[in-house]
Structure formats: structure tokens, C-alpha cells
Amino acid sequence: MRASGILMPVFSLPGPYGIGTLGNEAFAFVDFLAAAKQTYWQILPIGPTGYGDSPYQSFSAFAGNPYFIDFRLLAADGLLTEAELPAPQPVGPVDYGALYQQRPVVLHKAADRLLASPTPAYEAFCEAQSGWLEDYALFMAVKAEQKQAGLSDWPDDLRTREPAALAAAKERLADEVDYYKAVQFFFYTQWNALKAYANGHGIQLVGDIPIYVSPDSSDLWTHPELFQTDGAVHLTSVAGCPPDAFAADGQLWGNPIYDWKKMAQTHYSWWIQRLTAAGKLYDVIRLDHFRGFESYWSVPAGDTTARNGKWVKGPGMDFIRTIQQALPNLEFIAEDLGFITPEVRKLQQDSGYPGMKVLQFAFDPREPSNYLPHTYTPNSVVYTGTHDNTTTRGWYHEISAESRAFAREYMRIPALDEDMISWNFIALAMSSVANLCMIPIQDYLCLDKEARINTPSTLGGNWTWRMEKGAFTEELAGQMKRLTVIYGRSRKEESKEERKEESTDF
Which of 66, 121, 291, 414 has the fewest CB atoms below 10 angstroms from its CB? Predict the structure, then answer.
């Protein structure tokens, strides 16, 4: 089925408390997507973020981000008073330092009220999520006690979960453990309400599953045997990408690498647990760094660049088949960007998962793969750009004259200019044979590079962009609807008369 959707992180929503939340603005965005005849809302990972604020470096593969909890909804549930709500702020870039200092003060008040008289819903949540919740909450409580030190710097007995030290920590930190459990209850309650609302309005949520966990995570702490460690929860190798035209030293991500042999011996039970949880949060799952399941770039722990890494075979189809047999109803998108070999392509094809096509790569002479639309197959997802790219307007300002000329010639348009380039690219993506078309909201808003979400391999200034209040207008929804209908991607069947009317109005 041909369909389309919008890529926009939760944190980019407008709202009064310094970051996008699961409150009024999220519900309004769903209404906007429905009016625009979209089918999907794609977000970035929604886990709690740590150093660098990257959603791909989360404290847990299962927990939700406390920053996304909407205070107004807590007040509506009687967990905060109106006087306890922070003063509204103008919409601007996310200030994570301020959030880190201010949010827990408010959340503690709500948690105290809940824990003073736990509800059946809270108790049911704790029971349902017991496979990860208790360990995550204890991890966060210990981390706070250790003044936010990373896991590798914890005292040996706590890092290695020595039974006596663990028991003492549980007793000593019981109140903080309960706080972190309550916060997760708040997140999940609000997320589930938003998902139900979205699904009820014909909008499906596309989630993003990072292939790796953070080196500072409850996942590594709880299951060190599933990762390449020295037996004392110290990493022996870390993940990254090899040097290429974009990064001379490669990309040193620093994430723990799975011990895939151990994973296979458990029939990938941890991954099945992870994806089962994700399948309840999302309607479609984007598997980040899909090529890592075929071969991954392994860098010796302690190296300062990724230059000395090597390719190591991953679990391949054994992993994919196991997942498909255990979770036959889950839908996936394979993030198959980067250095793609014939072996990776075969794995993607054998899996049946649609791969990704990024238009910005089509006209870049440095990119060895061919992303020109005439090469697409229906089983693919086309993007103008992703969260790791600049906006299309920003791309226009950065590319060479030769790339501009080729893009103009390819699209058969008389001029390529900054005022229309975003819409040119959107129309090109929408008209392709790819079954699914995902457009970053910044491109529909024709924004320049200041709206970029992330610049890979950099720290600072990333993950902060937010949409201005009132940006998703009725007029914009109408423009999106017209394109969607013209190119046969409407989420509802249109009459021939309506289709004709829409095509002449654009």
C-alpha cells in the first residue's frame, strides 16, 4: 500500500515547558496529520537520555524519557496542583541542562502523591513491567547516589552486582527506586493514551530501535554476559563505523558490542523481550544500523578513533528468522544506510524488510550507492533526508554547482532555487514507486540548516530543534493533503472527483 508520513521527534513539538511532551501539542499534531491525510508519524528513540542528550545513548532500552512527561496531564490526574506547574516558557531550543535541574523537582511532587496512595493501575504497571523496571529504577537510583558517574566508574561491588552490595543498595535507596518506577508509570500512561488517540485517528507510530545500548545503561549492568566484556563489566570492544569520505577517522560510537554467540545460545531472548516491548509502543519499528546484523565494525576499547576497527560477522538471518518466528506480526523498516555490501543487501532482501532511500544522497558524488528514484523498488521507504542530515534547504546551500545542475536536470525543472527546493524534493519523493514516503517536518516548513536535528560525530547543539508554535497550520495541512492525494498516498480512498479537484488546486 502506498502511504506517507512525517518524521518529527517528540522533543521537537512546541509546548510551554522547554521541550516537546506527550500533552496537548502531541494530540494536536495527530489531528494535523489526520487532516493532511497522512498515515504515519515517525519519531526518534524515546528512552531517557544521558551525556550528549542523544536518544541513541539511553539509560535503558525499555524505559521512557521523563522529559516527555506532560505536567498538565499530571495535574489533570490530581498528581500536581496548578500552583506547582512551572511558569510557561516561550518555545525555543531544548536546554537539557535546565531540564535536568528543574524537571525532577516537579516529578518528585507527583511521584510522592502517587506513592502515598498507590493506585491499582500503578501496581498493575509495576507487575507487567517487572522484567526490566526494578533493575532500571535501581540503576538510576545508584547512579544518582554516585553523583551521575558512568557505570564504568562505579565501585566494583556495585558495578558487578555483588549480592551483598546489591541488597544493601536496594534497602538504602528504596525511596528513590520507587520514585523512578513512578516516573515510568507516568510516561507509559501518557504514551499509551497518545498512541490510542493516534491509532483511533488513522495514524500509526513508527518507532526507532537503536541497534546498540549505551555503555552507561541498566541493560549492560543487568546483562553483562550478553556483551563483549572482561567479566567485570568493562568493555573489551566498542561499536563504530569505519573511515569514509565523511569522517577520516571513522565514527567512534563507544557502545557495547553484543556477544552474539551468547545471544544465540539464549535464542535471542533479550532481543525478543526488547522487540516485544517495542511492538506495544509502536506500530512499525525502524531497526537502526541494520548492516550491523550482517557485519559490525568492532573497535578495541580505549581507542580514541575508529581507525583500528575491523569488520566482524554478525548473526545474520539466524537472528532475523528467530525474531520473525517469535514475533510474526511486527512490522520493520531496515535502516540500511552507510557502507552497504552485497552481503548486507542480500540480508535486507532475505528479511523482506523495506530499506531506506534518501534523496539528498542521490545527487552527492561522494556517496557510492545510488539513491536516484528510478532505481527504487516498491519495497522501500523514501526520505528527503533524515535526522542525521541537514534540511533539504540547507542541503541546497551546501552542495556544489555540479550537484545542483544534475539535480535540476534529473527533475527536469528550469531552475533549482532555495524557495522551491524543499517542495521539489517532496514531490520527487512522493511520486516515486517506494511504498512509503517519510518527509521531515522541517522540509514541509521549508526551513534552513538551523532546523537540523543532529550532526553525526559532534557534541553540542544536537537534538534541540523545536517547531514554532502554530507552525502546523490548516493551510499547510491542505498543501500536504493535495500532494498526498495526487500521488496516491492518501490514508483513505479518494473519489476520482476529489482526486481531480486536488490535482488542479495545487
Answer: 414
